[in-house]
């Protein structure tokens, strides 16, 4: 028999089939095991009592870039981190009684960005790529088209109804998703006045950071983005010698100080480190602005728990402050760095960000009463990350497929479709047999 790539693939499949069967749990070989599980699932649905109450609070969790593949891979990784096979793991998100799908296209593109999607799910209006809090009549980067085409968000509606409101994000607070809750901008990139073209300024457009203070009275603001709030050249308190972390504003304004002065007569705290954050008493605090990085927050796996709080800790502090309002609250919590990790081809980071995001959801549910709180979890768009190659049950989701390519070299179970998926070295793919793919490396591997 000739040994061809097709022959090798057939033999591999036969061997893998037998090996996979040998790894199965004994109870899973019994049909009653699966029928019993199905009956329990059906009964839990039948026993569910419809909640017809009017919601007093809204917890809105947004996993930026967290598509179905990311969600599935993160579920498996969570289980594997607990020494389980992973596939049968139940995430907090899996326990919600209702599930739906959303079409994410923007008015001008099949594939949206986080600015267009945030405007859609926060303001209820589809719009154009790169624009925030405006209708599709506004054009990307053209200030004149912004005027008269502003649309308001659910955060403002909640505030106008007398509720307390807040935003928590792992990105900068001026980033696309949080910004759509309070800003109106023809460009998502106008973080500070230094980013706004002079022509746009003449036409009356203002930067997103200044709108954070002026548009809606937000009770809790947490994330990153310090450098967009302070005058150009201002040394960052955490990284004083890093020039890229210094203030960017050309107008000389210190928005953190302005924010504090605007809250005269109230207990308003501005903090930038975990020690001061931990010292904030939610029971006596009216307003909190916490900006923990000059730009976006660190990835969860890089975060120093002694220096920066987690998304779980931020969510808890926000809920405890906001829930004091007898009229209720609206809180937006964004797992924003899921998306950014995927953009860099860093599946390891993206999945760990998703797990941390799921932990924040669990904390939100723990701190609220489902009879008076509507909790929504969704993604704004997905990423071209895929599963490949018939991996064994329980095999590391960040590992390599047991099947090899026709070049007799292994490939990873997870792959990105917005690139070649591989690198060429001397005209061929590198051999990954001795490469630990379950690390913080970028895909494709070098």
TrEMBL record:
* Cofactor annotation remark: Binds 1 Mg(2+) ion.
How far does the signal peptide extend, from start to end residue?
1-24
The record's subcellular locations are:
Cell membrane
User: What EC number(s) is this enzyme filed under?
Assistant: 3.1.3.1
EC class, as a word, reads hydrolase
Could you tell me the membrane topology recorded for this protein? Lipid-anchor; GPI-anchor
What protein family does this chain belong to? Belongs to the alkaline phosphatase family.
What residues bind Mg(2+), as annotated? 64, 175, 177, 334
Top-rank taxon of the source lineage equals Eukaryota
- One Pfam family for this entry, by name? Alk_phosphatase
The residues responsible for catalysis, as annotated, are 114
Q: Output this protein's name.
A: Alkaline phosphatase
Among SMART domains, the record links this protein to: alkPPc
Cofactor requirement:
Mg(2+); Zn(2+)
Annotated catalysed reactions: a phosphate monoester + H2O = an alcohol + phosphate
UniProt keywords (A-Z) are: Cell membrane, Glycoprotein, GPI-anchor, Hydrolase, Lipoprotein, Magnesium, Membrane, Metal-binding, Signal, Zinc
Say yes or no: keyword GTP-binding present: no
InterPro entries given for it?
A: Alkaline_phosphatase, Alkaline_phosphatase_AS, Alkaline_phosphatase_core_sf
Provide the binding site for Zn(2+).
64, 339, 343, 380-381
What CDD domains does this protein's entry cite? Answer: ALP
Any one GO molecular-function label of the UniProt entry: metal ion binding
Q: Which GO terms describe its cellular component?
A: plasma membrane; side of membrane
| Quaternary state and interactors | Homodimer.
């Amino acid at each position: 028999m000739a040994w061809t790539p097709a022959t090798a693939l057939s033999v591999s499949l036969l061997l893998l089939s037998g090996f996979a069967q040998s790894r199965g749990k004994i109870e899973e070989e019994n049909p009653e095991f699966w029928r019993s599980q199905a009956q329990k699932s059906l009964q839990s649905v039948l026993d569910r009592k419809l909640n017809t109450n009017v919601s007093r609070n809204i917890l809105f969790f947004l996993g930026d870039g967290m598509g179905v593949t990311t969600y599935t891979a993160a579920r498996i990784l969570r289980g594997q981190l607990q020494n389980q096979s992973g596939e049968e793991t139940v995430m907090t998100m899996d326990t919600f009684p209702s599930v739906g799908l959303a079409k994410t296209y923007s008015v001008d593109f099949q594939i949206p960005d986080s600015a267009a999607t945030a405007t859609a799910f926060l303001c209820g209006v589809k719009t154009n790529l790169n624009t925030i809090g405006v209708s599709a009549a506004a054009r990307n980067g053209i200030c004149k088209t912004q005027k008269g085409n502003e649309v308001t968000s659910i955060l403002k509606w909640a505030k106008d109804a007398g509720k307390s409101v807040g935003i928590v994000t792992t990105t900068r607070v001026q980033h696309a998703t949080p910004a759509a809750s309070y800003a109106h901008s023809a460009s998502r990139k106008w973080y500070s006045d230094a980013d706004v073209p002079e022509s746009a300024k003449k036409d009356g457009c203002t930067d997103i950071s200044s709108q954070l203070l002026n548009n809606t009275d937000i009770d809790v603001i947490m994330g990153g983005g310090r450098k967009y709030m302070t005058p150009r050249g201002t040394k960052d308190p955490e990284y004083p010698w890093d020039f890229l972390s210094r203030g960017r504003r050309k107008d000389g304004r210190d928005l953190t100080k302005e924010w504090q002065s605007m809250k005269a007569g109230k207990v308003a705290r501005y903090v930038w480190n975990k020690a001061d954050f931990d010292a904030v008493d939610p029971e006596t605090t009216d307003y909190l602005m916490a900006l923990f990085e000059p730009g976006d927050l660190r990835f969860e796996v890089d975060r120093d728990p002694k220096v920066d709080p987690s998304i779980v800790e931020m969510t808890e502090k926000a809920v405890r402050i906001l829930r004091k309002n007898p009229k209720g609250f609206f809180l937006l919590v964004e797992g924003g760095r899921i998306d950014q990790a995927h953009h860099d081809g860093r599946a390891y980071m993206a999945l760990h960000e998703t797990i941390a995001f799921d932990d924040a959801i669990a904390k939100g549910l723990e701190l609220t009463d489902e009879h008076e709180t509507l909790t929504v979890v969704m993604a704004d768009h997905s990423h071209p990350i895929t599963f490949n190659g018939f991996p064994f049950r329980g095999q590391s989701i960040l590992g390599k497929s047991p099947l090899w390519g026709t070049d007799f070299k292994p490939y990873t179970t997870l792959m990105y479709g917005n690139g070649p998926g591989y690198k060429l070295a001397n005209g061929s793919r590198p051999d990954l047999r001795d490469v630990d793919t379950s690390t913080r490396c970028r895909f494709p591997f070098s």
